[in-house]
Amino acid sequence: MDIRKIKETCLYVTDLEQTKEFYTGKLGFELIGEVPGRHVFFRAGASVLLCFISEVAKEGKTLPPHFGSGNLHLAFEVAKSDYQPWKDKVEAAGIAVEQEYDWGGGFLSFYFRDPDEHLLELVMEGMWERGG
Amino acid sequence: MDIRKIKETCLYVTDLEQTKEFYTGKLGFELIGEVPGRHVFFRAGASVLLCFISEVAKEGKTLPPHFGSGNLHLAFEVAKSDYQPWKDKVEAAGIAVEQEYDWGGGFLSFYFRDPDEHLLELVMEGMWERGG
After folding, report:
1. Are the beta carbons of A122 and A78 closer than 8 angstroms?
2. Which of its termini does chain B have fewer beta carbons within 10 Å around, N or C?
3. Which residues contact A61 (CB under 8 A, 6 or more apart)?
4. Which of B60, B74, B64 is nearest to B109 (CA)?
5. Sign of the C-alpha dihedral, residues A46, A85, B32, B8?
6. pLDDT in tens, A21-53
7. In this structure, is the dihedral angle defined by the CA atoms of residues B118, B122, B128 and B130, taken in order, positive or negative?
8. Cβ-contact A44, B8 below 8 angstroms
9. Helix, strand or coil for residue A83?
10. Which CATH class is domain A1-69?
11. A-chain residues within 8 Å CB-CB of B129?
């Protein structure tokens, strides 16, 4: 009776077109849902990334209300062998790598920002499953 | 070169002890990291849930700054056969189920709140992978 994973992670954004241009146009995520003025949803591997206009999600007309502000944080996971190619891809898309961090044991991650200044991170698979 | 999944999802909380009592004490998540006054981290299946004190994360002393407020949203995924047992477990822990929703095709989800009023959802595995 274990949780499989966190399936949906939600960000709050100000401009859905800008968000699509970033996550689909620059990062290459598949757009899997869209309601103009309300939200855009993307597939991120086995997870989904929900991007809502906060004031609209807060109305909670059909589903319970939620909302948020700030520069939220999430981390995408890639195979170790895909880490450097992904870093190259992010930089080639003109996105600044804000910081890279060495977590030990050969595990690196790097940080970058989406158009709403949410803090995105790319981590290597296995980093959270190390012993000790 | 695909993203595997969203590995880390982050919430901002006001009281780390209260957060531990909820996610570990009530939901049974394993505590995998803790820095008093700064954060508590939990394993949520293949994902990790990061809970930060927003004002501390915002300082960004070692890693880039992030922060947030509001009633954020995320969804945990369980096997279809574990859905009802999980709903029973949540209710038995004295947590109110705010809403249950039928997404069609036999896929249900229910919503509840953590102590900071973040909107948590439990979804059945496969809901986002349906055809059409």
Report:
1. yes
2. C
3. none
4. B74
5. negative
6. 999 999 999 999 999 999 999 999 999 999 999
7. negative
8. no
9. helix
10. alpha beta
11. none
Superfamily of domain B70-132: 2,3-Dihydroxybiphenyl 1,2-Dioxygenase, domain 1 (3.10.180.10)
Residues forming CATH 3.10.180.10 domain(s) in chain B: 1-69, 70-132
Q: Does the structural domain A71-132 have CATH classification 3.10.180.10? A: yes
Model pLDDT for residues A66-108, shown as the tens digit of each residue:
999 999 999 999 999 999 999 999 999 999 999 999 999 999 9
The length of chain B in residues reads 132
* Type of residue at B6: I
Q: Within chain A, which residue ranges are assigned CATH 3.10.180.10? A: 1-69, 71-132
Distance from CA of B131 to the nearest CA of A (A): 11
DSSP-assigned beta bridge partners for residue B75: A8, B121
Phi, psi of A114 (to 5 degrees): -90, 180
* A6·B47 Cβ contact <8 A: yes
State residue A60 phi and psi, 5-degree precision.
55, 45
Q: pLDDT tens digit string along A112-121?
A: 999 999 999 9
Q: How far is A106 from chain B (nearest CA, A)?
A: 18
